[in-house]
Each structure stands twice: as structure tokens, then as C-alpha cells.
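Please, structure for the following, as C-alpha cells.
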Amino acid sequence: MHTVKMFIVIGIVFWILTVLAIIDLAWKDFGSLGKKVAWAFIIFIPFIGCIMYFIIGYRQGKKQSVTLKIDKITFDNTKKNQ
């Protein structure tokens, strides 16, 4: 019974890591759609895919700038050199 609980916990941890990797992948720019799709396939490799993404792919992607415009007021999440 102890072994079953351990496998359930490990499964939940890897499921959470996979979801976090997918969210991170969706918000980053990899330069081309082909690279992003390739990383999506890698992420879905059970257990090692999400680990590979966080070790290798996480540093390759760049955060996309998100700009929100509301009634002539612009909120930008990127830091600008002042």
C-alpha cells in the first residue's frame, strides 16, 4: 500500500510539472512555431519530457511582451531602461 501512495504522489508531481511547462511554453517566444511545437511534443514524453524542458528549453524561450491598453493608458509588463 505504501508503494501505491508513492507512485500516486510521483504521478501528481509530474502532472503538475507538465502543466507548468505547457503554461510556460505558451507564454514564451521560441523564434518559430516549429520550435514551439517540437518542445510541446517533448513536454508530453512521460516523466522525462517536462524535466528536459525545464533544463534545456526553459532558457531558450524569451518572454513575450504583453501590453494592455485601456482608455489611452498603457500598461506594459516589460522593464524599460531609464
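The beta strands are 28-29, 62-63, 67-70, 73-76. The longest strand covers residues 67-70.
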